[in-house]
Write a structure and sequence with these properties.
The complex is a heterodimer of chains A (112) and B (112). Chain A is α+β, with helices and mostly antiparallel strands and 112 residues long. Chain A has two helices and seven strands, in the order βαββββαββ. Chain A has helices at residues 13-23, 70-81; strands spanning 2-8, 28-35, 42-46, 49-53, 56-65, 89-95, 98-101. In chain A, helix 1 packs antiparallel against helix 2. Chain B has a single domain (2-111), classed as Alpha-Beta Plaits (2-Layer Sandwich), CATH 3.30.70. In chain B, strand 3 and strand 4 form a beta hairpin. Classes of the chains: A alpha+beta (112), B alpha+beta (112).
């Protein structure tokens, strides 16, 4: 199995969820994170004072999938999260050795 | 080394921590996340209005362990987080190439 982790723009999360559901992804973990990439944050003016916004809010999505689905899931996330503007985020894939469903103790493919 | 990640019901976290301490786990990272699995969230009524709760609050636990401890740690989490009701969560294991303790610069086994 593979762990697909995506860090995307918060307003894109609904689009990504819908697209993944259509493909057949039945679950995921979502968290609010902050980060920056090449754009190195930006400067914002709030009530006349200038603030350096180094950390931009993002949504992190984690999905454990079958090896054969990883490429499709990455493609769907990229396509739906893309705005073409800087700060669209990143998606990466890690190998997973074991997965267990806590309720039943099912392992690996049966636990997805 | 292995990274064990578990997404469990928030009210089970204390039990999991106690079970992990009993098997010798000396530290972990915990975060509040949201997620859904096969149950697809559920509908809740709040002040007369019906809300679709697509994302259920969960606690994510991350632990880096020795290769030989991974199975024990997974087992301790599964048995302590289990309620046998849907939404108990998942546990997965990912290989870790290297770990460093920031304070000392120690690496790998010495840093776990």
């Amino acid at each position: 199995m593979k762990l697909v982790t995506a860090v995307i723009k918060p307003h894109k999360w609904e689009d990504v969820r819908e697209a993944l559901e259509t493909f057949g992804v039945t679950g995921m973990t979502v968290s609010e994170v902050s980060g920056y990439g090449r754009q190195k944050g930006h400067t914002e003016v709030y009530r006349g004072a200038e603030y350096d916004i180094a950390l931009v809010p993002k949504i992190r999505i984690e999905i454990v999938v079958d090896d054969g689905d990883a490429e499709d899931v990455v493609g769907i996330v990229v396509k739906t999260a893309q705005t073409g503007r800087i700060g669209d985020g990143k998606v990466w894939v890690s190998p997973v050795e074991t997965v267990v469903r806590v309720r039943t103790g099912d392992r690996d493919a049966a636990a997805l | 080394m292995k990274l064990v990640t578990a997404v469990v019901k928030p009210h089970k976290w204390e039990d999991v921590r106690v079970a992990l301490e009993a098997v010798g786990v000396t530290g972990m990272t915990v975060s509040e996340v949201n997620g859904y699995g096969r149950q697809k969230g559920h509908t809740e009524v709040y002040r007369g209005a019906e809300y679709d709760i697509a994302l259920v609050p969960k606690v994510r636990i991350e632990i880096v362990v020795d290769d030989r401890d991974a199975d024990t740690v997974v087992g301790a989490i599964v048995s302590s987080a289990q309620t046998s009701k849907i939404g108990d969560g998942k546990v997965w294991v990912v290989p870790v190439d290297s770990v460093v303790r920031v304070r000392t610069g120690e690496r790998d086994d010495a840093a776990v």
